[in-house]
Specification:
The complex is a heterodimer of chains A (about 120) and B (about 130).
Chain A (H helix, E strand, L loop, with lengths): L2 H18 L8 E9 L2 E4 L1 H9 L6 E12 L6 E11 L6 E11 L5 E10 L3
Parallel strand pairs in A: 1-6
Antiparallel strand pairs in A: 1-2, 3-4, 4-5, 5-6
Chain B lengths: L2 H27 L8 E9 L2 E4 L1 H9 L6 E13 L4 E12 L6 E11 L5 E11 L2
Parallel strand pairs in B: 1-6
Antiparallel strand pairs in B: 1-2, 3-4, 4-5, 5-6
The chains are: A alpha+beta (about 120), B alpha+beta (about 130).
Chain lengths: ~120, ~130
């Protein structure tokens, strides 16, 4: 399958899960996964899921503007770079964000997130 | 975290910071020299356009439609890329083009891979402007 299409499909699945079933994000990380969220570092699927579940908003909607991807090396990984906006329920203005993922293939033919870095883009 | 992990953690942050400072200093003062940071399998995605290898990448960067520019870095995040010893670097900041009134916001990510003599080169580079 075309790598750009794979990246796009993963990104759509990730944000759909984030926006409708945030606890389900735990399935997209593994024990060695790392998240840096606005500078705060977390490691491991459980701790990452707990961090994301504890974010101070109930409902949100990600709107994706750009998705770029490149292969990361001989292990079959993919680097994915996303920009978009994040609408929080009750907030008038959407927040702009950028996020990078390093995806690694699983034996079952899908991907998990090994590295994840998220930053809001302030005006 | 034990002492060894602390050392590795600080190390990649130091490498990332030093690289970022070096990269944008070169970009802003001697753009042609950026070619020294890439090699023949390096990849660049610049505003969605893809380039492969140091020659194509060097050509793209030197042909960007502005003479002078200055990067101002707001945030630098880094993580180890466990397979192959690479370092992932995520940068956000502003880009001032000479003659332009308003700065452009940008985000950029790099994967740095270690070279035999202790330096690093850019294996992956993705650049995006962040429009208002």
């Amino acid at each position: 399958m075309d790598p750009d299409a794979v990246a796009k499909a993963f990104v759509e699945h990730y944000y759909r899960t984030f926006d409708s079933n945030r606890a389900g994000l735990a399935n997209l990380y593994q024990e060695g996964s790392m998240l840096t969220f606005e500078g705060a570092k977390t490691q491991g699927a459980q701790a990452i899921a707990a961090k994301l579940a504890s974010l101070p908003f109930q409902q949100c909607l990600h709107n994706i503007s750009t998705v770029d991807c490149q292969p990361s090396g001989p292990a079959g990984g993919m680097l994915v770079f996303v920009s978009g906006s994040l609408q929080l329920a009750g907030e008038q203005h959407a927040l702009k964000f950028s996020q990078m993922f390093h995806l690694m293939p699983t034996p079952q033919g899908s991907f998990f997130v090994l590295n994840d870095i998220f930053r809001l883009n302030y005006a | 975290m034990d002492k060894v992990e602390m050392g590795i953690e600080e190390q990649h942050e130091m490498v990332a910071k030093a690289f970022v400072n070096h990269y944008y200093h070169l970009f802003d003062t001697n753009r042609a020299a950026l070619a020294t940071l890439y090699h023949h399998t390096s990849m660049l995605s610049f505003e969605g356009q893809k380039f492969l290898g140091v020659e194509d990448i060097g050509r793209k960067l030197t042909q960007l439609p502005f003479e002078q520019c200055k990067h101002f870095i707001s945030t630098i995040d880094s993580q180890l890329s466990p397979f192959g010893g690479g370092i992932l670097v995520f940068v956000s900041g502003n880009l001032q083009l000479s003659g332009e009134e308003h700065q452009l916001k940008f985000s950029q990510m790099f994967q740095l891979i270690p070279l035999p003599h202790g330096s690093f080169c850019v294996q992956n580079d993705i650049f995006r402007l962040n429009y208002g």
